[in-house]
Amino acid sequence: MNTLEMIKEAGVIGAGGAGFPTHVKLNAKADYLLLNGAECEPLLRVDQQLMARHPEEVLAGLAAAQEITGAGKVIIGIKESHPDVIRIMKDAIRAAGLADTFSVGTLPNVYPAGDEQVLVYELTGRIVPETSIPISVGCVVINAETAANVYRAVSGIPVTLKYVTVTGDVPNPVTLKVPVGTPLQLLFEYAGRTDLTGYEVINGGPMMGPLLTPQDKYVTKKTKGLIVLPGDHRLVMLKKRSMSSARKLNRSACEQCSICTDLCPRHLLGHSTAPHKMVRAMAYGMPASEKTATALTCCQCNLCEYYSCPAGIQPKMANVYYMGLDREAGIKKAPLPEYRAVPQREMRMVPSARLIERLRLREYNVPAPLIEEKVVIPDYVGIGLHDHVGAPAVPAVREGDRVSRGQKIAEPPEGALGCPVCSSIDGTVEAIDGGNIIIRRA
């Protein structure tokens, strides 16, 4: 079994975001391998602490990924606001004898520095064409936890554990290492919020994370953060807006000032993204056409809605609206002949501190110390079959089967994009229901 197959069999996926299978992402030849250590969403604390606590594992995972991709250079992107982590990683690179090809790239403390296309530009100067991905310009990007999981995979250890930050309006903000499938309620209880009545939870970062739904019961392989906020918090109210209300509000209140476009991170890279134009198109009821295809270039970072717009309307929702119409009509965005960053880009990037103030999250912007001891031990886990991009995994076990930690319990259909799923505890399969395999601890 080669290294790529070991990564696949271990069930490694992107440990944040969409959860793209890592063995597929690494199966490419690249000039650059980039580590996304920006953790650009406010309040999240996983990757920075992993790099500080386990730099050798992160570097070993990167070295394995470098061997697969053939990348001549490996750059670790870390925000300038984490000088201790920068120092630790630089020291670890020297100690491992990797300084010939490995380096640390300092990122500005802005949002969204961790957007893949922003990261590629900041670290390499290359611009990913709109609607494309980093490999189109010779780059492969993974984050710190994914790199650590690659290291464990080549050591024969499958993905059974997850690092999650629990923060916000909780007495004990914390980052925990727990078995995949751990009931979320146990994490809230450890953070001191036993009763969520009157609260909402953001599943991920405050900018791009959706509100937790009743179906979200367990820690998945891509769960990164859980942010508890009062139900009447401004950010919660913004996330509860519907498409119908967005259409009415956008039609009535847009001033066409274009600030949403001026500050758009993709527009600043030279893409044709122009949310103010999509708001105008929505107001006039324009059908899908080549003119609305710019909506397909939106990365849905929410900067236009939560920060830029002085009228408080929803430009991103206009982009999402036309994304749907364009795709239904089979319209694709034709690439531009060339891409050049906007000359004023550096002055228009949004500082993270200012974003935190605008989101009214300053009181919650506190440390969430990493605890790796087994302080949360679930009696049962619910392991998802569709936590990754691609086809849902098909169960390889039945109710009543005994399973052990690390055992493969599901795998994707033959030839389909997907990833195997492994048990995170020793126990008995209690049920296969709602897209989850429920395992009761032995």
Describe this structure in words.
This protein has 442 residues and is of the alpha/beta class. The protein has four domains: 3-154, NADH-ubiquinone oxidoreductase 51kDa subunit (Rossmann fold); 160-233 and 360-378, Ubiquitin-like (UB roll) (Roll), CATH 3.10.20.600; 241-349, no CATH class; 380-442, RNA polymerase II/Efflux pump adaptor protein, barrel-sandwich hybrid domain (OB fold (Dihydrolipoamide Acetyltransferase, E2P), Beta Barrel). The protein contains 16 helices and 18 strands. The strands form five sheets. Strands 8-9-6-7-11 form a five-stranded mixed β-sheet. It has a four-stranded parallel β-sheet with strand order 3-2-1-5, with helices on both faces. Strands 12-18-17-14 form a four-stranded antiparallel β-sheet, with no helix packed on it. A hairpin with a 5-residue loop joins strand 6 (161-168) and strand 7. Helix 4 packs across helix 7 (144-154). It is globular and about 60 Å long.
Summary, kept brief:
The protein has 442 residues and is of the alpha/beta class. The chain is built from 16 helices and 18 strands. Helix 5 (83-95) links the parallel strand 2 and strand 3 (102-107).
